[in-house]
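Format is sequence with structure; example below:
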Amino acid sequence: MHSSIIRTLLWGYWANILYIIGMIGYLTIDTISYMYISLNTIFSFMIYLLLAIVFVIDAVLYTIDWYMYAVKLRKEKDQPIQYRSEFLACIFQNLGSIFYVIGAILAFDKMQLINKLLFNLLGIFAFLIESIFILLGWIILFRKKISKNNCTLQNIYIWAHALNIIANLIYLCATILAYYFYRSDKNMNSTIVLILQIFGDVVYLIDAYLYHECWQRDKQEFDAVTEQQSLNKFYLEKFHHQSNANENK
C-alpha cells in the first residue's frame, strides 16, 4: 500500500511540473508575440502546437492521478468510487486540451483561422467547467472540516482553485475578443488580446506553483501519517512480543 500511495503522489507531482513548464512556455511565446506584433510564423505555430500537446499529456497525468487515488487505492473493491466531481473535471480537462490541439493544428491554414478561434473558445469553456468541478470537489471533500481556522485567505488550496477559475475567465475574455476582432477586421494579433493572454498566463503560472505547493503539503501530510502508522505498528509489535514473553515465563 505504501508504494502504491507513493506512485499516486508521483502522478500528481509530474502533472504539476508539466503545468508549470507549459505555462512558462505560453507566457514566453505570448510575450514574444506582444513584443513583435507581426510575428505570425510557422515557428510560433509549432511552439503553440507543442505546448498544446504538453497539456494533453498533462491532462492524461491528472486523469491517472485521479484513477489511482479514487479507484486503485480503495480499501475495498466494492466500495463506491469517490471524487466524482474530480472525475468530471478530468473529462473536461481532456476535452479542453484536445480542442486546443485541434486549434493549434488549424492555425497552420490561414483559411481555418476562424475555426481555430472556435476550437480555442470550446477549449477554454471546457477548462472553465473543469475548474468549477475541481472547486466543487474540494468543497465536498472538506465540507466537514471547513472552519474559521482553515477556511481563510491563508488557505493555499482556496487560492489555487480561485486563481484557476480567474485565469480561465481571463482567457475566455481574451478568446471572445480575439474572435470578435477577427470577424470584424481580420486582426489576429490585437494588442488588447495579447495583453489579456499574458495576464492570464501569469495568473496560470502562479496557480501552477500553488498547486505544486498543495502537492507538497499533501506529501508532508502523507509522510506524517506514514510515520505515525509505523510508530504505532512498532509499539504494537513490541507489546505483543512482551506479552508473549510474559506468557512463556
